[in-house]
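Dear colleague,

Thank you for sharing your sequence with our group. We've completed the structure prediction you requested, and as agreed, I am returning the results in plain text so they can be pasted directly into your records. Please verify that the sequence below matches your submission; if there's any discrepancy, let me know and we will rerun it promptly.
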Amino acid sequence: MKAAGLRRRTYDFLELGSFAGRAAAFFEYFMIGLILVNLAMVALETVPEFWAAYGPWFHVFDTVSVIIFTGEYLARVWASAEREAVAGDSPAKRRLRYIFSPLALIDLMAILPFYLGAFVSVDLRELRVFRLLRLLKLVRYSPALASLGRVIFAERRALFAALIVMMGLLFLAATVMHHVEHEAQPDKFGSIPAALWWALATLTTVGYGDVVPITVAGKIVGGFVMIFGLAFFALPIGIVASGFSDEVHRREFAVPVEVVDDFPVFARLPREVAHEVAMRVRSLAIAPGTVLAHKADMDNGLYFVMSGEISAFFKHRTIPVRSGDLLGECGLISEGRHQVAAIARTRCRVLWLENPDMLMILSLYPDLVGQIMAYSEERLAELVEEGFLSAEERVAMLANRQDWLDRAAS
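Please find the predicted structure tokens below.
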């Protein structure tokens, strides 16, 4: 049981990152810094003066880095037994599935060249190009790169259509320029494949100048090709930029589903409920003294407290709301749907599910309504035992429960 608990804590520490606490966030920043310094070292090793003066130190730094990367890789493989299981699964199968996952393969490729150097008689500096694969490890630690990947996948059809248009324009420009310039410059425009280099350099507005039209007709065609290049080759950039902007504005960054799944309210529900919530919640980092909700607020939605402590105020009484608690469920069942006032006592990390998204999820997963009601009953009972509420106040709040259930069902 102790080993299982340690494995779970290791999994949360490595996979949830900053959501698992300050130590995990520091580890993320440390690994990002280590990866960037490794890339800088790869570049500096190519400078003869630096290599002659600091060659042994470069090797020591690379060895220490590989030890850290190897320890991280082995820890992730060991803790991967805590990953989401499927029917008939076992810890060994989950580890094997993780080992062949894209991120795990990237981690392996980042350290493999170092160990291959011990068995292959080559200059370690010749393996520096493979060490650049460590740059790919940033995908794990950068939510922006993950968001960019989602945008490219979501816009794949539009990008493919733009690619077809670009290829057609490229061949059209090369064909026209071949017919116009092949007599004046047979060595440069003597065939369509030879003219493709000029067309590509011109359409992308690079214009190397090694191949240029010299006839009047060729210059006119070249001018039109430049103009069309500005228009058509900007299409993919616009598609990706627009999708990335929408992704960034939709939420600050992705919230791991494991973070949402750890809350008790989702414990007895299918995992797809946590997936849906994770896609829609916003992660908020709140400084001490920040007002999270006012007494007169209505339909704020739900707040999942991940870390820190928040004070909720009910009839001039202070009620502590700590890590793992929900905030906002009492407002759902109270008369008038008014939220209690809440203020952050310490630095907090909160997941906010806004009211429209919450109502949509409740309509898709009606069982979540019962879970929220059960949680609110247990929470109110605890508050009565701790002396924050009276039994009469608890009964009065629960009396409004049916009204909220009817609204949620509709």
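Summary note from our side: The domain at 157-236 is CATH 1.10.287.70 (Helix Hairpins).

Kind regards,
the structure core
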